Hints:
There is one protein chain. The protein is α+β, with helices and mostly antiparallel strands. The protein has helices at residues 3-16, 19-58, 72-77, 81-112, 118-126, 133-143, 152-165, 218-222, 315-340, 344-352, 357-385, 389-394, 400-403, 406-414, 421-450, and strands at residues 174-175, 181-182, 188-193, 197-203, 230-236, 260-265, 268-274, 280-283, 290-295. A 5-stranded antiparallel β-sheet has the order 2-3-9-6-7, with no helix packed on it. Helix 8 links the parallel strand 4 (197-203) and strand 5 (230-236). The chain is elongated and about 125 Å long.
Amino acid sequence: MTATTVVKQQAGPRRAAGPAPARRGRRRARLIALLFVLPALLLLGALVVYPVLFSVGRSFFDASGTRFVGGDNYTEMFRDPATLKAIRNTTIWVVVAPALLTGLGLILAVLVEKVRWATAFKLLLFMPMAVSFLAAGIIFRLAYDEDPDKGVLNAAVVSVHDAFKGTSTYPTARGRTGLLTQDRDGSYRTTASAGDTVALPMVGVLPGDLPGNASPARTAAARKAAPGELRGVVYLDFTPGGGGRQGRVDAQESGLPGMKVEAVRDGETVASATTAADGSFRFSGLTAGPYTVKLPESNFAPPYQGVSWLGPTLVTPAIIGAYLWIWTGFAMVLIGAGLSTLPRDALEAARMDGANEWQIFRRITVPLLAPVLTVVFVTLVINVMKVFDLVYIIAPGPVQEDATVLATQMWLVSFGGGNDQGLGSALGVLLLLLVIPAMVFNVRRFRNSQR
């Protein structure tokens, strides 16, 4: 027997005994891994698995949880008008918000690449992600306030409106009863003839609300009209400190400047004027005969108050706008990361072939970014299905039902006054069933990308 044969015979048993220690090592490694994962599994079971199973079971019982009702809660869920409205609003959220966010994120990610301060711009857009939904809801609740003195959006809208259309000077003014006749449209009128001087007494204006250039009307009221001329004065028929006579221009009574006055004959306006600082006005070149002296309703129109952002019609788009403010930076950063991995040689080759930037964007950039765009879109779909904070905080109480989504409706039914946790659990199960397909789709795409 040679030395080589002896070595082989001795080495043979050692190779046969090798797999057992290897298996023991693998089992030990798995046990150690399980010990590290065990706390996370316990938390996952306590915070996710158990609540899901409990909610499914609870959905088959009545509000008190003592009587089994089978599928009655699910039947009631689709008969309740509030729940149907929540499903409709959730559908609007799922269709509109992720699409807008993905589109905005894509456009901003492409544009940011072409600016010098790209990092600062990305940081600025991403900063709202650091704001909690509670704080963002309070911010936008104030921004959407209908009072232009509080809500910044309505303040801007009112400023633009007044810049182009103007505003009434005396929204609270009204004619002195018995001396002026009020028409259905809110205007006031009296009758006078060419050559007359007419006084138009008004009340309802606080002395402190008078324009700064307002002056006493007594002198203007004493002027006589020339032939073919019609004069008059619009004044505040109120004497500070008391005294004076109604319908008569007293010494301390002020004119109302900036008031529009019209002379009407046979239903047509033949002349118009604006009152001076002392409230006086004058029509010249009139033919003889009676005229209707009219103060148009535009003098007394209430001030424009802006848009009812949180009214029943616009409350859902307004809340979606707040959501876009928060999540646009998230979409932009993720799409920007995908954009940075695109092969630059393909883009340069397209430019050398004569393609313009729009053709490159539509035919090369978007197709290559399709996997990233899909992941961003599906992630946002999952997120908007669970939106709760913004809807609950921004929507005022009277329009809460008009803005409700499945998550808020589930809370309102269970804890917000409904006290029907059976129906609330059924809503929770419905929300889970809607979220699961999107989650499965995202997980499969992630696994395929890893392969």
